[in-house]
Amino acid sequence: MSAVVGARPVRRRRLSTTAIVFIVLAAVLVLSAVLVTAAGKPFFTAGNLAAVLTLMSILGFVAIGQTLVIIAGSLDLSVPYVVSTASIIGAGVMAQGPAGIVPGVLAALAVSAGIGAVNGLIVTGLRVHGFIATLGVGLIISGWLGTSFQGSFGSAPPEFRVIGATLIAGVPLSTIIMLACAALAALLLHRTRLGHHLYAVGGSASVARLSGVRTKVPVVVAHALCSMLAGLAGLLLLARTSVGSPTIGSQGGYDLMSIAAVVLGGTLLAGGVGSVLGTIGGVAIFAVLDNVMSVLEVNPFLKDFIRGSVIVLAVALYAWRSVQRRPPRFRPGKEAAP
Amino acid sequence: MIATAQRSLGQRFLSGLATPSGAVFVLLVVLLIGVIAMNPNFAEPGQLVRFLSRTAPIAIAAIGQFFVIVSGEFDLSMGAVIATQVVIAGNVIGQDEAMILRGIALMLAVGVVVGVVNGLLTTVAKVPSFIATLGMMLALYGFVRFLTGGAATGNPVDSFREIGRGALFGVVPYPVLILLAVGLLAWLVMRAPFGQTLLAVGDNPVTARLAGTRLVLVKTSAFVLSSLAATVAGILLVGYAGVHPSVGQGYEFQAITAVVLGGAVLGGGRGWVLSAAAGAISLELLFTLLNIAGIDATWRPTVQGAIIIAAVALGAVAWRSARKPKPSRPAGATGPAGTASIPTTTTRSGER
């Protein structure tokens, strides 16, 4: 993405936001390595890197979906409840044994996609702000979860739990699946008509409308995909914990943290600008910070303080310079930013 | 506009009720009648006043959140501010009566600082308010839990807690008086030039800036008002909830729900401040109604979720219809003939 070449001579090349995200990530990595080494513990070990990658996977899924929704100019606050729902449904169907794995996964993903479609239809059809629509749907689901399930529910067979425990060349399988989803999402955004429409609608719904784009379809699809990815996150949590839990999503705080990760990754909250690659960088920054703080045994409550400060500082860093700028996609003579 | 000025007070009242900000009062009355029908005891003045006193903190929080939302921003740090203030009250005031005034002064100062930081992050550093206040929320919660270890700590002296649970002459609870005072102040603020500027900023920041509004000052003031309201809510909550770092959790979303239920539009520019308080009271009435009807408390979120989606969907329709035909306002639907100066088509007049 830094390989964009201007047609006219550019006096001072401006770094793309994604580049800054990864510079911040590198800085965080270096700082962490120094801090951890100074504390007399190794940082770049296979075990520790696998721990960081595992931390990335769950939030990663949710954040990829959130990226799509935010680029389309909406927001999804219902993800934690979708995560819980998927884990409950998956565990319920899989309780019958290995034969239930495929139906369980399919059922969980189908229900998640359905929730997402409802979100999208409320946003587009009833013209309710994404914040309220998804907050409302999330509350509706949480009422159902809280009423119908007390404690854990169902169970996952050992064959399914393997997914949560497998390492391939030192990389957890769940992280590989997450990165594959990220690649697919990036492909969708940059190589398909739907992806371009997502950017167009998020940038300005009325301009997109006047240009002949069906503004409702991309938003509904983005919401459905976002919820499906949240459902995948729920299934992976199920593979890790082996029982479905009605509170696993809200405990993780995936709604606000995924939005924070997306914005940390350089995506504009207002929509229309952003990339999945940046989001992965944002998620990685969180994962490294979390890992370092637990290795250094920082007080868990102080973690939140540091996390909050990092979010604000990092976003201030590039919000400061990128908000007024037009997205590079529309600059003449420049390639589309990846 | 001329037509508006010519209409009588009654007509203006009726057309006001037809806007989302007015409809919430209809909803409030309907809910109140519903609750009283199912539980006649609720109509007793004592019960009503006690209910109002229980609702005061969330209503005050909603009033604070209104200022931020109407200027086009969010304040997610509200719950964390409440928790911070509660913990400050417990630690600074403690059992020392002499510290009460100094403690309150400190809490107000902390509220102002949080608001200023939120406002400057949003306006000067250009961090979206959603993220800025989310960061503030994480930071404050982390700080509070770090200080307390996540457990309940000592309550402040009883005479301070009286503010939240005492009553003037043993009849009118202080929270109700404070709610009335805050409501009156908020109403005056929104009528003052500052309030009108706030609405203008929320409606269209570009034109507001071109018209000479100092966006930084106006928006930061809105954030300060919001965290001051959270501070007052915190002072009241110490009274009957005691000191625990989880006091105030979820208040930000509750307050946003109330504001939206009160007809304010996310994105700013539309709404009435007292409707926000009415939204909060309606929400609590609804929960009371569910309680009396014997529905499990676990279903509360579901009802809340359905209600806010419905309210916003209806509100969007109503605001659009109130806005589109400029010459003939939808007042034609409620008021008698002769109000509109130009009798154009009123196809949307059937919608509320």
UniProtKB/TrEMBL annotation, chain A:
Transmembrane segments: 20-40, 46-71, 78-95, 101-123, 130-150, 162-189, 219-239, 259-289
Protein name, UniProt field: ABC transporter permease
Natural source organism: Agrococcus pavilionensis RW1
One GO location term (cellular component): plasma membrane
Domain of life: Bacteria
Gene Ontology terms for molecular function: transmembrane transporter activity
Membrane topology: Multi-pass membrane protein
Alphabetized UniProt keyword annotations: Cell membrane, Membrane, Transmembrane, Transmembrane helix
Subcellular location: Cell membrane
Main location: membrane
From TrEMBL, chain B:
Transmembrane segments: 17-39, 51-70, 76-93, 100-121, 127-147, 167-190, 222-243, 255-281, 301-319
Region (Disordered): 323-352
GO molecular function, one term: transmembrane transporter activity
Keyword Membrane assigned: yes
One Gene Ontology CC term in the entry: plasma membrane
Top-rank taxon: Bacteria
Places the protein is found: Cell membrane
Bias (Low complexity) ranges: 329-352
Pfam families the record matches: BPD_transp_2 (PF02653)
Bilayer topology: Multi-pass membrane protein
Predominant cellular place of this UniProt entry's protein: membrane
Keyword line: Cell inner membrane, Cell membrane, Membrane, Transmembrane, Transmembrane helix, Transport
Protein name from the UniProt record: Autoinducer 2 import system permease protein LsrD
Natural source organism: Agrococcus pavilionensis RW1
Organism lineage string: Bacteria, Bacillati, Actinomycetota, Actinomycetes, Micrococcales
